[in-house]
Amino acid sequence: MKGHLEILPTPDALVQAAAEQIARALIESVRARGRASVALSGGSTPRGVYSLLASDQFRSNIPWQGVHLFWGDERCVPPTDAESNYRMVNDALLQFIRIPVENVHRIVGEGNPAEAAALYERELRQVFGLQEDGVPRFDLMLLGLGEDGHTASLFPGTSAVNETTRLVTELYVEKLNAYRVTLTFPVINHSRQVVFLVSGKSKAPILREVLQNSLLTYPAQLVHPSSGELHWLVDQDAASRLETVNQQ
Ligand code: 6PG
Questions:
Q1: Phi and psi dihedrals of 50, rounded to 5?
Q2: Can you tell me the distance from the alpha carbon of 222 to that of 153, in angstroms, rounded to the nearest whole number?
């Protein structure tokens, strides 16, 4: 198993541990480098974490003025759509924190997918001050795990999984009948710290496959930051199929 696995007893404990890890990374990055860049994951698992970060327990301890928020992926829908990852983060976190509007880098998913991907790639290059062939180095990359082993919007069997040049790509996901825009593995694997958040019994089979099946068959198994940390924060339900592992 690659990376550091932490199994939390309940979903609430997972949310608390994730919020603490995110806050620590943001605070340390701003202290060390004057700013922090984080790519937020979408879906439903992280919503509770974002809400906790917006709470009195965390909100005022995080130097939001130095934090740059990005999204790891986005559904190609308007930002007001119930499916929108931007809307989920706005509802849970953005509306409660004082973060400069120029620090919030939304994927403009509602337009043409290819144009959205190109626009986001340009924004990454501009914000990170990259040369033509540069790759952004996120201080923190939050990822979820789909039951099919996808992460971000890197779905099994799609060409996006094999993208090694572009920083951002668009893709059509057959089984969802939907377009997505996603960061690619070159970006994900260049992060200082990658944190997977996995919760619930429904994820137990795939989590066991991803962590304990040595064949590289799922996109999530391709996440291994070349010079960064990989953390798996999972709750007991999600971990219930794992062979006995030594918790570090
Ligand atoms: C998305 C996410 C996706 C998500 C997984 C897990 O846009 O849906 O980026 O990769 O993290 O599908 O989703 P849940 O947390 O809802 O199970």
A1: -65, -40
A2: 13
The answer to whether the predicted template modeling score (pTM) of the entire model surpasses 0.85 is yes
Report pLDDT for 247.
52
Ligand 1 atom closest to residue 41's alpha carbon, by position in its atom list: 9
Are 88 and 42 within 8 A, CB to CB? Answer: yes
* CB of 144 closer than 8 Å to CB of 43: yes
* Residue 244: band (very low, low, confident or very high) from pLDDT cuts 50, 70, 90: confident
The Cα 149–Cα 73 span in angstroms is 15
Q: Is the pLDDT of residue 1 over 60?
A: no
Both structure tokens of 145: 């795990």
Nearest protein Cα to ligand 1, atom 10: 152
Distance from the alpha carbon of residue 94 to the mean position of ligand 1, in angstroms: 19
Residues with CB under 6 A from ligand 1: 41-45, 72-73, 85, 144-146, 150-153
Kindly list the distances between the CA atom of residue 210 and the CA atoms of 100, 105, 231, in Å, as whole numbers in the listed order.
38, 30, 13
pLDDT digits 0-9 by tens, 57-83 = 999 999 999 999 999 999 999 999 999
Pick the atom of ligand 1 nearest to 143's CA: 11
Nearest CA to ligand 1 atom 13: 43
* 72 Cα nearest atom in ligand 1: 9
User: What is the whole-number distance in angstroms between the Cα of residue 95 and the centre of ligand 1?
Assistant: 22
Average pLDDT over residues 197-218: 94
Pairing of strands 178-183, 73-75: antiparallel
| CA–CA gap between residue 76 and residue 83 (Å, rounded) | 9
